[in-house]
Amino acid sequence: MAKRIQFSRTGGPEVLEFVDVPPAAPGPGEVRVKNAAVGLNFIDIYFRTGLYPAPSLPSGLGTEGAGVVDAVGEGVTHLAVGDRVAYAQGPLGAYAELHTLPAGKVVKLPEAIDFETAAGCMLKGLTVQYLMRQTYELKGGETILWHAAAGGVGSIACQWARALGVKLIGTVSSPEKAALAEKNGAWATIDYTKEDVVERVRELTNGEMCDLVYDSVGKDTWETSLDCLKPRSLMVSFGNASGAVEGVNLGILNQKGSLFVTRPSLNGYADTPQRLQAMADELFAMLESGKISIDIAQRFPLAEAGKAQEALASRQTTGSTILIP
C-alpha cells in the first residue's frame, strides 16, 4: 500500500483525506514515480473546491512532483527504472508516495538539480517560460506589470525578467513581499493594499504605461490590469486566485485602447513531449546558470496538505511550497 491525499467531495481543506491505496501499475506508455517531493499550487485548490471539476471522485490531487522512476510500462523507451525525473502535468494524484502518469509528461532531471528544487519549480517555472518566451517573446527593454510578484510564479518571473533585461513592476501585499520581489529582480513594486496600482504605474512609467500585464488574480484585478496597459498592448490572464473573470464585454478592449487579451495555460503550450522537453531544457539551463534560484520557503509533510493549502490561499506563503511524502 502507498499513502496519498484524496478527496471524495469538494469543499474546504477539511475534505482532504490521507489514505492508503494500492499503487497503480503503469500501463502501456506510462511510468510510476516514487515522489521525493511534491509541488503545491493554486490550481490544486481550484480542484479541491470544485472551481475546476475533477474527472471523478474520490480523486487524487496535484500534478507536480519529482523523484525516481520505480516502474515502467510497455513501450516506454526514453525512461528507465532508477531515472531521476520531474513532472508538472498529467492526471491528478501527485500528492502521493507513488504516482502513475503518461511517460510523455515526465522529463529527466539533470544531476545538478535536486528533487526539492524541481518539485518547487516545474509547474511555476514552465509557466513563466511559456508566458515570457512564447505567449509573448520578451526581447528586453519592455516594461511589464506582474501581479503577486512575491509568490511562487512571481518569484521566478522577477528573476527571469531581470535576466532578459525587462523592467518588471510587481504588485505585492506587504513591505516584506516588496523587499523579496525586489531582491529577485523586480524593477519596482506596488503595495496594492496602500497604493493605487494604476496611478503608481502611471508615475513609474512617466505616463507611458505597460507593454504587457500578467494577471493570475482574475476577477478582482481585471479592470485595473486593463487600465495599466499602453494602447494596442497585451493583457495575459493566466489564473483565477480571486475568482474567474466572467461576463466580459469585448467592447471594453476597444474603449481602453484597442487592447489584446489572451487566456493561456501550460497544457496549451506543453502539448507534446517535444515541446515539454524544449521548455524544460530552457528552465533547467536558467537554473544551472544561476540566473534563477528557487526559494523553497515552506515545507509540509504530505499528511498536512490541507494546512499547506490554507497557508497558500491566505497569502501567508512566499516563494515555493512543497509537500514531503
Automatic annotation (TrEMBL):
Listed EC numbers: 1.6.5.5
EC top class named in words? oxidoreductase
Signal sequence span is none
| Entries under SMART domains matching the protein | PKS_ER
Report the residue ranges that make up the Enoyl reductase (ER) domain in this protein.
11-323
Q: Where are the transmembrane segments?
A: none
Q: Which InterPro entries match?
A: ADH-like_C (IPR013149), ADH-like_N (IPR013154), ER (IPR020843), GroES-like_sf (IPR011032), NAD(P)-bd_dom_sf (IPR036291), QOR-like (IPR047618), Quin_OxRdtase/zeta-crystal_CS (IPR002364)
List the keywords (alphabetical).
NADP, Oxidoreductase
Write one Gene Ontology MF term.
Answer: quinone reductase (NADPH) activity
Return the Pfam families for the record: ADH_N, ADH_zinc_N
Q: What is this protein called?
A: NADPH:quinone reductase
